[in-house]
Amino acid sequence: MTRLLAFLLALLLLAPAPAAAQLLAPGERAMRVELVAEGPAPAAGGTVTLALRMTPGEGWHGYWKNPGDAGFESGVAWRLPPGAAVGELRYPVPERLTVAGLMNYVYEGPYALLAELKVPPGHAPGTSLPVRGSLDYLVCTKEICVRESAEVALDLPVAASARGASPQTQFDRWRQALPRPLGSPARFEVADGRLRVAIPLPAAVPVSQPYFFPLAEGVLDHSAPQFVSRTGDVLIVETKAGEGAAAAPAVEGVIALGDGRGLSLAASPGIVPPAGEPLSSEGASEAAGAGTILLALLGAVTGGLLLNIMPCVFPILSLKALSLARAGGEAQAVRREALAYTAGVVGVCLALGAALLGLRAGGAAVGWAFQLQDPRVILFLLLLVAAIALNLAGLFELPAFGRGGRLAQGDGAAGAFWTGALAAFVATPCTGPFMGAALGAALVLPEAAALAIFAGLGLGLALPFLLLGFVPALRRRLPRPGPWMNRLRRILSVPMFLTALGLAWILQRQTGTGGLLVGLVAALLLAAALWWAGRRHGWTALAPALALSGAAILFLPTAAAPAEAGETALKAEPFSETRLAQLRAEGRPVFVYFTADWCVTCKVNEQAVLARPAVAEAFRRAGATVLVGDWTRGDAEIGRFLERHGRSGVPLYLWYAAGKAEPETLPQILTVGRLTGLTL
User: Contact 167/39 with Cβ under 8 angstroms?
Assistant: First the structure.
């Protein structure tokens, strides 16, 4: 009966179609449709993602796969060469629109329907693959509806190999709008005319205005209100059951979490726990969100605090502490420097966070430390760290450098500010303990809350120096000034030189031998110029070297060095979601780890744990395959995969046990015993 009423309503809505046509100019459509493909040229026998880009006119809307109380699903009839095939259309998370008391599941703005095209294995490279289709869809305003048809066409070039085919940023944005698979079993039950669905969801995941969109007709009353509550790590949706709910073998749909986020799920019959804390009301949702933000903020502050022990940050922090001892610890000046240092750290963290959020809003699959995926940034840091190391080693002294710009050792508020900015810029490449979950949460929280978490990261990084500035008892524990300070400066130059060597290695990995040669020549010229200027020749002696360094950064060759297959002992294969799915389908255990050359935590784990013969032997005995994802230069597929696992950066370690649907997320600090124990 429900479907009959919906069908009659659709007929009534379609009846005024002549009136709707009067709103459109001759030849104009209420919905603009375009077929586009991702990447310039797929390989024969491979796949490529297609998108039907749907752009409704002002005041019009399109419909989800299940349109709700009225309307119908869009359908496409493909016309393809023999051997080619297009998969099922994938829809983004829908919106709700109530018209005359009827619930509709719609899109009131531009959206895209995605599908996978299988290219015939025998298709000749260098030729085009004609893709044609006829799309039928319904487009409506709040008063009238028009049924339209559109012919779509695309001549897709086919290459001998898919290498070099780069994903388009627009497709990343469209994929972000798709619901993510829940990955955990959900349950439903029908009792006393009510449908109740239990959805496993960690309590730390923020939820705003949750709503369950059913995929099939008849499982629930679309127009009935839904009541959502939370019991621990389970969301519970309750609403009026539909006519077919009791006999349904499964209830499929999408649970919307707010801000365009959603999870697709399939619930099986089972026991649903009693309702918990209500989330349907705005106040309850805000309270849950406040707890999540507070937890993420605490993790960010703790993670930032731990960054101070990194080898490239500790010397800078030590020098600022020594500057307090050299100044005699005058309270007002010390507090002023501490606040300036904190402002520099927090300012850079906020700037990096804002840039990250802006790039992700534009559809780019980037994460924390995205700036280090650009070799020009690596070269800039190489030159800067080398200059600091040479200054600490005593190669040059520039007194004027300390009155506002000396980054490593300058006195006063200006020197402290730039020291903090430098420390934040070079200390934030890796996500250490506590940071991973905090930064992952920042990517799904509202912008203001996300920026607060990035500021918390900066506050944690600045906390030791801030405490020295405002706690006199800590300052009194600092040693008295003396000749030992010069010796300590020389000692602290060692980790800075090691950092410079590490940056040179990263530069070689990103750009090859040519880029490394440019970097070394620029560093030698800058060192010679700094030495010459330090012999009382002043800033004018630095001008040519600074100009050459700037030119080297701007015109650095960016051709990537050949990627290594991975750790030799582990016989790791390059990561791809296709390969992971294939191994999982074969029932084999898989260890997946994501790394980057600029990630200190990653490299320590690889050398101290992953390179150990005991780990390789344990994986070999278990028949496990190791996949490694290299994020040094950025990779959209890896970026999307990290995001789906709640991470914004590396490292990430996952263990897929044989026969288990979900992976185990391992700690960011690995041990040999932890890895060998996985195979027992």
Answer: yes
Sign of CA dihedral 414, 415, 420, 423: positive
Tell me how crowded residue 425 is: count the other CB atoms within 10 A of its CB: 22
Cα separations in angstroms, 158 against 78, 116, 120, 419, 642: 19, 15, 10, 53, 30
Which tokens is 538 given? 């002043």
Q: How far apart are the C-alpha atoms of 534 and 133, rounded to whole Å?
A: 71
Owner of token pair 């930064």: 439
Rg value, the chain, Cα: 29
3-state SS, residue 536: helix
Q: What pLDDT, on a 0 to 100 scale, did the predictor assign at position 10?
A: 47
Q: Among residues 335, 352, 312, 600, which one has the least CA distance to residue 455?
A: 352
- Looking only at Cα atoms, what is the longest distance across the chain? 93
Sign of CA dihedral 235, 236, 240, 243: positive
Q: Which of 312, 313, 227 is nearest to 274 (CA)?
A: 227
Average pLDDT over residues 442-459: 77
**Which band of pLDDT confidence, cut at 50, 70 and 90, is reported for residue 519?**
confident
What letter represents residue 377's amino acid? V
Compute CA distances 215 → 317, 569, 630, whole Å: 56, 47, 37
CA–CA–CA angle 442, 447, 453 (5° rounding): 40
Can you give the length of the chain in residues?
Answer: 680
Q: Are 31 and 108 in contact (CB under 8 A)?
A: no
SS3 for 336? helix
Joined tokens for residue 193: 């005319």
* DSSP-based three-state secondary structure for 197: strand
DSSP letter assigned to residue 598: T
Are 525 and 388 a contacting pair, CB within 8 Å? no
Q: Is the pTM here over 0.85, yes or no?
A: no
SS3 annotation, 91-112: CCCCEEEEECCEEEEEECCCEE
The CA-CA-CA angle for residues 296, 297, 300, to 5°, reads: 90
Over residues 620-663, the pLDDT tens digits come to 898 999 999 987 766 777 877 887 776 767 788 999 988 787 78
Check residue 406 and give its pLDDT: 43
Euclidean distance between CA atoms 581 and 254, whole angstroms: 23
> pLDDT tens digit string along 308-332?
777 666 666 666 666 655 555 567 8
Using 50, 70 and 90 to split pLDDT, how confident is the model at 241? Answer: very high
Q: Say what the pLDDT of residue 240 is.
A: 92
Q: What angle do CA 145, 151, 152 make, to 5 degrees?
A: 115
Q: Which two tokens stand for residue 366?
A: 């980037």
- In angstroms, the CA 78 to CA 85 distance is 9
Q: ∠ CA 208-113-18 to the nearest 5 degrees?
A: 100
For 40-74, what is each residue's pLDDT tens digit? 678 788 888 899 999 999 889 999 999 998 888 89
CA distances from 128 to 119, 327, 376 (A): 11, 73, 38
The neighbouring-strand residues paired with 228 are 237
Strand-by-strand arrangement of the 47-56 sheet: 31-37, 47-56, 111-118, 85-86
How many other CB atoms are there within 10 angstroms of residue 191's CB atom?
A: 10
Structure tokens at 565: 């297959």
